[in-house]
Amino acid sequence: MWIIVGDRTRTAPVEDGLRVRRQCPSCSRVTTFVEHRMLTSFRLYFVDIVNHDARHVMVCDGCGATFVTDELKGRAPEVTQEGTVAGAVGSAFKATRGALTDAATRTRDAFESGKVDAALSQTRDAAGRLLGDLFGGRGKKRR
Fold this sequence. Notes:
Layout: E1 5-13, E2 19-23, E3 30-44, E4 47-60, E5 66-67, H1 85-113, H2 116-135
Antiparallel strand pairs: 1-3, 2-3, 3-4, 4-5
């Protein structure tokens, strides 16, 4: 069995980033260098698992060569997990936590207002409708 692991590096231009005209050490042309954000991800079987490095670089408009220059000192971007498995799991956790917090708040409000029976009845009716929508056609004989 083969295990395929590795890193993937992507670059994207920084909106309103630096633009500098200078001679490129790689292609020897005078071109515009554009600030890009470079993000490196750990990959397993061609799937981005976790981002582990982010930095700002200058990219030559002529040949695409990438350089870290003095203009970029102190401009280190934060490493986000957007587009990775870690990011998807984190988003799912946040959504679940939000839903549970809302449910707990509604339950507390129902207890405090003395309308527990009404809240339970509404919950039971909603669950019944959901189950009916999901499994409504199963097990019933049609005439």
